[in-house]
Amino acid sequence: MKPEGAPPGSGWEATACETLRADLAFDLTSARTALQALKEDGQANPDIVGVLDLLGRFRKASAPDLAELAAEARTFAENADPGSAARALHVAGLALLRAGRGDDAATAVLDGLEIGPSAARRTWMFDTLAGVLIAEGAWIEALSALDYVAGLRSEVGDPIGIAITAGRRAGLAIDLGHPQQAEDIAAAALSQVGEQLPLGSRLRLNTVRVLAALDIGSPRPDLVADLARDIDGVQVNYLRGHAALALMRADGENRLLWLNEASTALQTPYGRDLVRAWADHLVSAAAPQLPGPAVEPTEGRFTHCLLTAERARIAGKIQIATAWLDRGMAFATATNRPLWMAKVDRQYRAIDPIRHAQVSARRYSGLPPEALAKTVQEDVTIVFNDLVGFTRRSTHIGPEATMETVRSLFELTAPLLASHQVRPLQYLGDGLLAVAQGEGHSSRGVAFAQGIVQRSGVATRIRYARGERLGLVTRAGVASGPVVLGLLGSFAKMEHLAIGRTTNLAARLQGVAEPGQVIAPAAEGAADERVSLKGLDEPIGIQRIVVHPAELAENTH
Known about the structure:
The protein is an alpha+beta fold. Among the domains are: 280-351, no CATH class; 370-556, Alpha-Beta Plaits. The chain is built from 24 helices and eight strands. It has helices at residues 12-24, 28-39, 46-60, 66-79, 82-98, 102-114, 119-135, 139-155, 159-175, 179-193, 199-216, 221-230, 237-250, 255-265, 269-282, 299-314, 318-335, 338-351, 353-365, 369-372, 390-394, 399-420, 441-465, 501-512; strands at residues 376-387, 423-428, 431-436, 474-490, 493-499, 517-521, 529-531, 540-546. Strands 1, 2, 3, 4, 5, 6, 7 and 8 form an eight-stranded mixed beta sheet that branches. The longest helix is centred in the last third of the chain and has 25 residues, at 441-465.
């Protein structure tokens, strides 16, 4: 984090650079030591000291402190020089991302980008935005962002950065169940910059390649040997730890050696949980048992659920396997982690496809499958969400880009459907018809509508920031009232539908919404305005909820 236009040099500038270098290497002890020396140097730039202090506090912050730290970073940015303000907003974004507030995290980082940071900061801020998109399940958008970051790093000839981006892209491919794609990405990066890479970067990519080979089902002894040889030369603990976990899976003869290495290298609570999960799976001789009392979800505990379910499946104990998958899905739902949901879904489908269908139905509706099969009339909330300007754009961008646009939009939507227990009824090209049922359906429906309009607006800002011309701005109509719910169709195609005036009203309200707005009928005396709608005899009072400015959609018309 050198001052703008200044080389690292000596004195406080060199100390600031050493603080950042140690932080990026996750050598937090050295980072704290360097930061303390920087604070004691009377010549140091106070804005740079302040933002480095925020970064150091973020690294050790506990979950309850993250939102407060993000707010403090935003306040700091208001009075700092432009470079430090952009960095502080990035720290705010990192804190909010770790707190599970992805849209707020992206907004903070985008606000930092608008200050006009240097090319280097632009790169790692976009890397964080890709992390937000991954966390929110917007994987098509995330890959586009990572491709953009890879391009920036290639332009400046940054081999380490190219390896980091390739590692993240390959890791996402493994998480989504595409190990061959992960191998191809990592191998291509090594071919591009392998000779220029320090040992740590090569270790990062070869770790991914070993994991990909394991998932493909064709272990690579050559890669295992290379990884085992190189691990001792790397000082960065988290790289050593994850390489050791990969070797623990791939090198059965030395499994205990690599377990010890992973235990030594991964000393954070997250790391210890992860090592414990793999040790139970690969080293423990104990037979899998039903899960005990519920505990707080962590990455390691979630991994333990999946691994124990797999051990139970291999042992033929399907009831125990599905019980552990139930626990894993409870963790995924409670934290609203789309990648976790995708991983559990893959195992459910392999072990018990009927139960998987039941779990999926309850996830989005809160109701058992048998309730969804009935034809009923009940009061519900209908949401109709639509992509602005899609018809016009689809005539210009070609079939593949058209489908990718729609898939991106629905990836943005899926986690919100789960978190608000809103059930998708129909995907109508670029539109979504969804229903919220049961207690609190009105508030959940409105919250879902606001959430998808907000999330699509954030995705649009990210697209525009990387130079894209077309965004993903949506608008929504929401209406509550009676509908008839039931199955309609034939053996060729069956759909759950909601039929009645309420569904029609939601569609009409969406039609009069501006880009970035949610419109719902207003209570008597609380209307923002009255509008005439097709099919209604009298104008009705409506509430316009402005989620983001309509100007954000200017490129979609």
